[in-house]
Design brief:
Strand order of the largest sheet: 4-3-11-10-9-8-7
Strand content: 25-35%
Number of strands: 11
Distance between the termini: 47 Å
Largest sheet: 7 strands, antiparallel
Radius of gyration: 19 Å
Shape: globular
Oligomer: single chain
Length: 311
């Protein structure tokens, strides 16, 4: 049965499903298909984004104008997705700070989202603050586009992607070559000797992009995810992109095969044109008959001791 039809009929009195909630539902269906004898129950969390930036990388190149700090006109050079994503990984390794949150603590995030109607109109900016339980044993408080919700503690047998529990994130390999295979074989012992098949990459791409959307990760995991994306087929480089402040950037966008969720192009990750530091994401959101252009980024993140505590 068509999964989108199921999603349209699911909880009809709830607000319209966003693309990110649909992605979460696809993950649930994927779990059920992978383990029919022991299906994994995943609690519906309609306001919590889990896989927003659906990107991947292949050896695709594009001519990108990079402004060098030389006092002369910018030089045109060819930049590949691998160059951008490996540069982003190097920048993350330079900037990341190791943390070791306790199970009784919370991950605090502050996300800024600016929306503008495609047909013209006034822009609106949302400031979403969320507190997520480190081990899932306590209620979390999440916000998306100004809508807030208390999320109950995890129940036995429940799981989500990306993993909410820090202990589960710590189990993921930080070797870029092993991470995609571990995600492909999620729920069982990874077979690192078996090559990836073509039809396995789209789901791996979804899992990797979900990890990158997670504001706080164990040391080395985010750089590994960037480098792992450099091995995934199906993206293009978009020159001349900017962030909300007008900084010059390079976009990376996943384009799926016809009939897939991203056949017409997915969200765009924007990286600094000189340093390759990740700046944020450009996307579109449909709400009824209206379509909005979005720009979003994480402005702050920290580990705190209780809900509503700010760093």
């Amino acid at each position: 049965m068509n999964e989108l039809k199921l999603l349209r009929e699911w909880d009809a009195d709830a607000p319209p499903l966003t693309d990110t909630v649909r992605a979460r539902a696809r993950f649930r269906l994927y779990q059920a298909m992978r383990a029919p004898a022991a299906p994994t129950t995943v609690r519906r969390r309609p306001l919590l984004r889990i896989a927003v930036a659906a990107v991947a990388a292949a050896a695709v190149t594009a001519t990108v104008v990079v402004a060098e700090n030389t006092g002369t006109s910018p030089r045109t050079q060819t930049v590949s997705t691998a160059t951008v994503l490996r540069g982003a990984a190097a920048e993350e390794r330079r900037l990341e700070k190791p943390i070791a949150p306790r199970d009784d603590q919370f991950i605090y995030t502050k996300e800024i989202t600016k929306e503008t109607p495609v047909g013209g109109g006034r822009s609106k900016t949302y400031v979403d603050e969320s507190w997520s339980s480190v081990d899932g044993s306590k209620k979390s408080y999440v916000s998306e586009l100004g809508h807030t919700q208390w999320v109950p503690p995890d129940q036995p047998g429940q799981s989500s992607w990306p993993p909410r529990r820090w202990s589960q994130l710590k189990q993921l390999p930080t070797e870029p070559g092993k991470l995609p295979i571990a995600l492909r074989d999620i729920g069982r012992t990874p077979d690192y000797d078996r090559p990836m098949k073509a039809d396995e990459w789209p789901m791996v791409q979804l899992f990797l992009s979900g990890l990158l959307r997670t504001p706080v990760l164990p040391k080395g995991l985010r750089p590994a995810a960037f480098e792992a994306l450099a091995t995934v087929p199906g993206v293009k480089v978009l020159p001349g992109r900017t962030d909300a402040d007008g900084r010059a950037g390079i976009g990376i966008q996943y384009v799926g095969k016809p009939g897939t969720p991203w056949a017409e192009g997915g969200p765009v990750l924007v990286f600094d044109a000189k340093t390759y530091q990740y700046l944020g994401m450009r996307d579109q959101r449909n709400a009824g008959a209206e379509t909005y252009e979005q720009w979003s980024y994480v402005a702050a993140d920290a580990v705190v001791d209780r809900v509503m505590q700010r760093p």
